[in-house]
Design goal:
Blueprint (H helix, E strand, L loop, with lengths): L1 E5 L4 H11 L4 E5 L4 H6 L4 E4 L25 E4 L1 H9 L3 E3 L5 E9 L13 E8 L2 E4 L5 E5 L7 E4 L4 E4 L11 H12 L8 H16 L3 E6 L3 H14 L3 E7 L7 H13 L2 E6 L1 H8 L5 H26 L6 E5 L4 H8 L23 E3 L7 H10 L4 H4 L13 E2 L4 H20 L11 E4 L4 E5 L2 E10 L2 E3 L5 E3 L4 H14 L3 E6 L13
Parallel strand pairs: 1-2, 1-3, 3-4, 4-11, 12-13, 12-15, 13-14, 15-16, 17-18, 20-23
Antiparallel strand pairs: 5-8, 6-7, 6-9, 9-10, 10-11, 18-20, 19-20, 21-22
Helix pairs in contact: 5-6, 5-11, 6-11, 8-9, 13-14
The protein binds xanthosine-5'-monophosphate.
Xanthosine-5'-monophosphate (XMP) binds next to loops.
Length: 516
């Protein structure tokens, strides 16, 4: 394992990703972890991330010098670089000269482990106030910029390396190469970590942990729970039962997809609970978005608990149901560490994610992975693209895409419109360019139109195509007009009671992706 020591902000996650792109397994640890604990993980290399602080700030995160003397290859980036410099006797000045953004890096001609084979001048991404003016003893300075005399250094003998910039970001044009030089040449690690390895390791670990007991898993139809279930199914076969709650707020074909495609690909034991009536009853007369979300979340948990009780009752007494499988991802874990004091914009109900007070031990086989890695694991496990490449779909489903009261008729109407939009987007090859495209029914709005020779008085449908990286921010997707035109024509022709299609051209913020 390669440890990425996190000094704050978002850098560590990205570094961990880049290490994995170099086909080496990495894990992030907080900078507050004691050095002995880090070393106890037997890391083959350690990377010190950047961070928002100045090394001279009071209370700024630090590291025990012993880490640098443990004989483990270390690569410091930005803040990590400066920390390494002062801990080992170099000089870091609070010069007041800030350097931010794209910067030209001049690489010295001396042989360098990190920079070999890269251009003498290359673009890097800088973001710092303090600057290193003298490298520690025994270190060679390997690069500089107009502002900082020591922008990179290395001590090949001790296997210690550092750069002032951020090699992990895309704007550092040779960043990945420099990182790989550290990993392969500096630390001598073989790049052999693959999705196949993860599956094998997880399967063995789950088998051992579960033994002859039983596990259940809530399937939402989303990528994460599907891949988690498929992985656990591979490990323990029929000792796993999946529960899929159909709340009637699914899109066209979605339930069938889980029932057929997923079962066909995995052979999993599936319990489908049709609870659509129950949800519709509970939602009757409600049009407030928050109230809808709460009702959907609450009903979901009740239905799941009931299904789970049935499974437990049916299980062999010798094989208790002791485990609950969840598709928790790495970013979920990282994000849940922070985020205090943030405003509650909407109550997200990760329907398919489950109540915390269920009395089970958790199996979370994807907790070390990022979304695109999960997709790769899914494909490797033989799940079809329709499941693995799915765009995100919110747990409360179409319930929060009908502005107004949710009724069966309105759901059917929206399902038709949504199916048309999805079909056309897929046909135009846009599925991967668009993060997701909510299709929203403004059920409480009517407008006048003309169709055939007559007046119509129907509802508008909103198309909300967005581009995003993590759904925290988003921009509206500049989609080809002809595709928009086809979707509009088909929806107004084929869906009763819809006489207008409009495009949402709001970014997030100020809009959110979903309308409710
Ligand atoms: P918003 O509307 O907050 O959505 O910009 C951001 C992303 O989250 C999805 N979303 C949800 N996903 N349960 C979920 O599992 C929810 O309650 C929920 N609400 C929104 C939304 O589709 C988008 O991808």
């Amino acid at each position: 394992v390669v440890l990425v020591v996190d000094f704050g902000a978002q850098y560590a996650q990205l570094i961990a990703r880049r290490v994995r792109e170099a086909r080496i397994y990495s894990e992030i640890v907080p900078s507050t972890m004691p050095v002995e604990e880090m070393l106890a993980k037997n890391p083959k290399a350690i990377i010190l991330s950047g961070g928002p602080s100045s090394v001279y700030e009071e209370g700024a995160p630090s590291l025990d010098r012993a880490l640098f003397e443990a004989g483990v290859p270390i690569f410091g980036m930005c803040y990590g670089f400066q920390l390494m410099a002062i801990k080992l006797g170099g000089t870091v000045d609070n010069t007041g000269a800030r350097e931010y953004g794209r910067t030209a890096l001049a690489v010295s001609k001396n042989a360098s482990t990190l920079f070999e084979g890269t251009p003498a001048e290359q673009q890097v991404w800088m973001s710092h106030g303090d600057a290193c003016s003298a490298a520690p003893e025994g270190f060679t300075v390997t690069a500089s910029t107009d502002v900082v005399p020591v922008a990179a250094f290395e001590n090949d003998e001790k296997k210690l390396y550092g750069v002032q910039y951020h090699p992990e970001v895309m704007h550092s044009t040779h960043g990945q190469q420099v990182l790989e030089h550290f990993l392969y040449r500096g630390a001598g690690i073989e790049p052999n970590w693959t999705m196949g390895n993860i599956i094998e390791e997880q399967v063995a670990a789950i088998r051992e942990r579960v033994g002859s007991k039983r596990a259940i898993c809530g399937l939402s139809g989303g990528v994460d729970s599907a891949v988690a279930a498929a992985l656990v199914q591979k490990a323990i076969g029929d000792q796993l039962t999946c529960v899929y709650v159909d709340h009637g707020l699914m899109r066209k074909g979605e339930t069938e997809q889980v029932e057929k495609d997923f079962v066909a690909a995995t052979g999993v034991q599936l319990k489908v609970v049709d609870a659509s009536e129950r949800f519709l009853d509970a939602l009757a007369g409600v049009s407030d978005p928050e109230q809808k979300r709460k009702i959907i979340g609450r009903e979901f948990i009740r239905v799941f608990e009931q299904a789970q009780a049935e499974i437990v009752a049916e299980a062999d007494p010798g094989e208790p149901v002791e485990f609950l499988v969840q598709g928790t991802l790495y970013p979920d874990i990282v994000e849940s560490g922070g985020g205090t004091g943030t405003a509650n914009i909407k109550s997200h109900h990760n329907v398919g994610g489950l109540p915390e007070d269920l009395e089970f031990q958790l199996i979370e086989p994807l907790r070390q992975l990022f979304k695109d890695e999960v997709r790769m694991v899914g494909s490797e496990l033989g799940l079809p693209d329709e499941i693995v490449q799915r765009q995100p779909f919110p747990g409360p489903g179409l319930g929060i895409r009908i502005v107004g009261e949710v009724t069966k008729e309105r759901l059917d109407l929206l399902r038709e419109a949504d199916a048309i939009a999805r079909e056309e987007l897929t046909a135009a090859g846009l599925d991967r360019d668009i993060w997701q495209c909510p299709v929203v029914l403004l059920a409480d709005v009517r407008s006048v139109g003309v169709q055939g020779d007559g007046r119509t008085y129907g509802h508008p449908i909103v198309l909300r195509p967005v581009s995003s990286e993590d759904a925290m921010t988003a921009d509206w997707t500049r989609m080809p007009y002809d595709v928009l035109g086809r979707i509009s024509t088909r929806i107004t022709n084929e869906v009763n009671d819809v006489n207008r299609v409009v495009l949402d051209v709001t970014s997030k913020p100020p809009g959110t992706i979903e309308w409710e």
